[in-house]
């Protein structure tokens, strides 16, 4: 009998809605990054032939221009210039370049929401 009485006095359960207690809001974020890139470039140029170059002013020669071809000054006592270059097969030139690039960036974002 007591069980019957307890069943009669209990009331049915009802669900209640949940209502958020905010009406708007914002979210902010900041992202920073640091990037460092180092590049090293090595350039080697090769020659696969023999070359000879002669140049100058107030200079003359007889025959074919070669090393020791008998170059002589045209007007003695006046200024002159003479240059000759002989390049044989092998490394013609070599260059090395190193550069570093640094990138620092910051990104800020904001999100706004309302109910």
Task: Describe this protein with a few key phrases.
1 helix; 115 residues; two-stranded antiparallel sheet
Structure description:
This protein is mostly beta strands and 115 residues long. It has a domain at 47-105. Helices cover 7% and strands 58% of the residues. The protein has 1 helix and 6 strands. It has one helix at 2-9, and strands at residues 24-47, 51-57, 59-60, 72-73, 81-87, 90-114. It has a two-stranded antiparallel sheet with strand order 1-6. The longest helix has 8 residues, at 2-9. The protein is rod-shaped, with a radius of gyration of 45 Å. The protein starts with a helix and ends with a strand. The mean pLDDT is 85.
Largest sheet geometry? 2 strands, antiparallel
Amount of beta strand: over 45%
Order of helices and strands: HEEEEEE
Average pLDDT across residues? 85
Total beta strands: 6
**Shape from CA axes?**
rod-shaped
Determine the fraction of residues in helical runs and give it as a percent range. Answer: under 10%
Structural class: mainly beta
Which regions contain 5 or more consecutive residues with pLDDT less than 50? none
**Strand neighbour order, sheet with most strands:** 1-6
Gap between N and C termini: 52 Å
* Rg over C-alpha atoms, rounded to the nearest angstrom: 45 Å
Count of separate DSSP helical elements: 1
